Amino acid sequence: MKRAAGLALAAAVIFAVLVLPNHPGTMKWSALNRWPLELPVLLLGMVAVGRRLIITHIVALLLLVAVAIKVADYAMFSAFNRTFNPILDTFLIGAGLSLLRDSVGGVLTGLAVIGTALLLVLLFLALERSLRLWTALSPAPQIRASVTVLALLGTGWAAADAGHHLEHWRFDKSPPGTAWTTRLTVKRGVEMRETAIELARFAEEAQNDPYADAAGLLNALDGRDVILIWIESYGRASFDNPLYAPTHLATLQAAEAEIAQTGMAMKSGWLTSPTAGGQSWLAHGAFASGLWTSDNGRYNAMLASGHKWLFHFAQDAGYRTSAIMPAITVGWPESLVMGFDLILPAADIPYAGAKFRWVTMPDQFTLAAYPALLPDDTRPDFVQIALISSHAPWTPIPDMVPWDAVGDGTVFNDMATRGPAPKDLWRDRDAVRDAYRRSVDYALQATFSHVSRLGNAAPLVIVAGDHQAAGFVAGSDNKDVAVHMIGPPQVLDLIDAWDWTDGLIPAADGPVRRMDSFRNDFLDAFTRPHVSAKVGQ
């Protein structure tokens, strides 16, 4: 009985690994209803091979890899609404640890890393021990031969299911049971191979730019200042999710009325971001480069290609290009190829107030401070400002203060100490959603209040969301973000062909284009017909 209980427990451990889901939506008790076809293959296979430690170690390691893939997928689906790609996403481990350290401190982060490593070791030992218990069975030769035949038949059955779902072949109906873990692991391996091939292809594609040598681009702007403002985690959820829409639409309507009083016109539309839940640089890259930087590998390939960003074309048109980046707290060497003359990271923005945990400074301070940080220059300005107050973990959230009271930022000190700590807030998903609602609303208020103050200067202002929030916050897997363009009416007349909606609330059924279309569309719209080079061929 003791031996039978041990074998049953060992089988249960392997069963749990095989049925472990990789998506938050399937992390339910119903997952136990799956019958993993790999289970009899593994158990009977161990009986057939007998006591061979190298076999148990190899199989345990493969099962551990499958668990790692599932857990990584789970984390990626929760944060970015996509699967984990080992080639492209390994760097996110460092970024995640950095965010965790800023949220809960270095000690707890270190303990979490050590705990994770110990869990992996313990899981490997448990799997290896479970497999070894089955290899310890010593049936008679005739029974062992029968077990071997059954293991081979089970392998064929599992292969039939895996091949059917991976579309290597098709049956009228899926074979009973599921070799889901095998399918997932094989699929991830295939994706890695395809990714490597695609990166090589993308690097070649990025070097072929029909606009690269065009002259006279952006001449229709007539030297007008251009300001691009990114609002973190601002997507379609602000318009169609009932948790957020009443708040955010009311703020946009009020801002629309305030901006209209300045005489500036407004148009709004939709762009599909290459990312969701994070990795804002992918959105920034697609928007300004005109290339679909849907993952970090493609982004790196784009950077290495020498492909021209929108800011390069602005430089060619006589603009001084600047990046106001309050989230940048470490070296940013890749910025050297983005086309900026001037880069102001957090350390160069004179905020004397307290940090809002991960957020280095409130958006209102960034918007109030940047004009004075730009040295005198005869050239018009083309400025990118990447705001961060609506970045997760969405606590604490600042309040708007009178613009003449912003000063050196110390007015925000008390706000920076209030509210729950991230580890407390994130225990309650409803509380997280409410914090997200309020933080985006703050960012919208700060942004459009600042834009209304620019009315007399009559710049062209572009306000864009970088991506949707994580799926459980946004409430959908949709990756659309709102984009607003604000400026003198005669300037916005140049984008009539885009069919955007007048005002700050884009029509729900308005046209949606990928974010990588913006660079070329912008160059076309704001260039007069006498451009000397033919583009877009």
Describe this structure in words.
The chain is 49% helix and 9% strand. Strands 1, 2, 3, 4, 5, 6, 7, 8 and 9 form a 9-stranded mixed sheet that branches. The relative contact order is 0.14. The protein has 20 helices and 9 strands. Helix 2 packs antiparallel against helix 7 (141-165), helix 3 (53-80) crosses helix 8 and helix 10 runs parallel beside helix 17 (429-453). The N and C termini lie far apart (77 Å). The radius of gyration is 28 Å and the shape is elongated. Mean pLDDT is 89; it is low at 530-537. By secondary structure, it is α/β, with parallel strands linked by helices.
Put the structure in a nutshell.
By secondary structure, the chain is an alpha/beta fold.
Write the layout of secondary structure elements.
Blueprint: H1 2-19, H2 38-49, H3 53-80, H4 86-89, H5 91-104, H6 106-135, H7 141-165, H8 180-206, E1 226-231, H9 237-240, H10 245-260, E2 265-272, H11 280-289, H12 296-305, H13 310-316, E3 320-325, E4 342-345, H14 363-373, E5 381-386, H15 413-416, H16 422-425, H17 429-453, E6 460-465, H18 471-474, E7 480-487, H19 489-492, E8 501-502, E9 512-514, H20 518-525
Parallel strand pairs: 1-5, 1-6, 2-9, 3-4, 3-5
Antiparallel strand pairs: 2-7, 2-8, 6-7
With helices defined by DSSP (H or I, 4 residues minimum), what is the helix count? 20
Total strand count, please?
9
Rough shape? elongated
Largest sheet: number of strands, sense, barrel closure: 9 strands, mixed
| Share of β-strand residues | 5-15%
H and E string? HHHHHHHHEHHEHHHEEHEHHHEHEHEEH
Helix content: 40-55%
Rg over alpha carbons: 28 Å
Question: Alpha-carbon distance between the termini?
Answer: 77 Å
Low-confidence segments: 530-537
Mean of all residue-level pLDDT scores: 89
Question: Structural class per helix/strand content?
Answer: alpha/beta
